[in-house]
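Submission checklist for the structure archive. All mandatory fields must be present; incomplete records are returned to the submitter.

[x] Identifier: MOP family membrane protein
[x] Organism: Leucobacter komagatae
[x] Residue count: 530
[x] Sequence attached
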Amino acid sequence: MASALQRASAIMASGTMVSRILGFVKTALLGVAIGQLSRSADAFANGNILPNTLYMLLAGGMLNAILVPQIVKSVQHADGGKSYLNKVLTLVSVALFAVTALAMIGAPYVLHLLTPGWPDSQRMLAVAFAYWCIPQIMFYGWYTVLGEALNAKRVFGPFTWAPAIANVVAIAGILVYIFLFGTDNNPPISDWSPLSIGILGGSATLGIAAQALILIVPWRKAGLSYRPDFKWRGVGLGETGRTAFWALLTATLMTMGGLVVTPIMNLASGEGPATAAMQNIWLVFMLPHSVIAVSLVTAYFTRLSELGQTGNMPDFREAYTAAAKQVTMLMLFAATLMFMAAPFVTRVLWPTGTAEGIEAMALVMRVYSIGLAAYSLMFTTQRAFFALSDARTPFIFITAQLVALIGGLLIAVSFVEAAHIGVTYAAIWTASTVGQSAFALWLLRRRLGSIGGRELLSGIARYVIAAIPTIIVGMLLVGAATRIAPDYGMGLAVVFAFVIAAVMGVIYLVMLILLRVPEVQGILRRLGKR
């Protein structure tokens, strides 16, 4: 079982890595085309915010909470779950169509709420981008449903490789834009035309469409077929609805939180890291989480769902503890690396950026990185609850974090300048996420009686000890690199980032070996046998 999970994790990690690298390239090219801290960049980011937000809600909560545990159970039906999948996909398609139509109608009103203080020209540019981007909602939803069904059938690769296609299409669109309209770190709002708006917004949506529709091929190869079925009774949709209630409540709460946070972030547009820059920094922040934590936990999730549905709690606890330890060990290193390499990564993210802009974005990235391991551990715990068909408890700790985040931000924004809103948000998010992770662990322990807490804490203590000399070496390397080339460009930034990553990785690995960390010992034994 362990080797199967590792193979599945490797397949997903490789797909996610390729996709994220292409996403990084796309973001860097977009920064070259329209800047990172410009009003045009913020208009594009806000125009694209509705489909992106709804996708995060679908993939991160509602559909994950519903589909995998229920599909695992439906596979035991005589038809192998085909009837259930047809009903669910039909229901989701109808709901997506309705949501997309409502979003198109309400886009001007939503963006008016999200962009207080913006000039009308900038807001209208955001609305124009929104009309091109909102159809992504349909394709994001189909991608999530088709992909999660494949995961439940243990066909892991396509779901994580499909986003690479979306990024390739979007990159092509940005290159066409650059060829036709050139590059500018701060393009005037008045320079935008229907053609330039259509190229950027349309290529983004075309990429998401390709990402969803390509999954039809593996869907058929997995022995699945689709026939619209509007009879939504008889295969457990009632239980699905009960599970979905809390996930839907969570999604609604997070959407409301976004309606509070986004306008505050938009106050910084043109002054410092605002919506566009914060989204792109978050993309980098999510890279190690997506490649490592999501891939590993997704592979464990199907196993946890099977154990949860059969009531095998001893093996469930063991599987959860193993996942939590592996995720924390890897993400703690990723956090130290991100903290040290932030200036170089930011330069790659924005090759034409000013020194002041790069410094401001790097500071935000460093503050975010402090909460990376806690965020991935919380994600692991959340999926454990989902595997138990429990979306109510995740609602509790997500609500607690969101209340702390919004409350802290509303208080802090009264005291900080617009240019510092981004880093203030990152600091409050990090503090609230660390508390959220601890709260989620406590709630899971209450649910299961035991989660191997001593073993988990002992492992985390060893990882922290291993990280200390790794951080020290990283600090020395960053200091030496900036002294050697204080005005480094994109090329040197890539070299510095890779060298620092390699050296810090060796130090961390050696420390884990010296501390006799079982997870590393097991990996080394398997490598030795091969």
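[x] Structure attached
Curator remark: The mean pLDDT is 84. Residues 440 and 446 are 10 Å apart (CA to CA).
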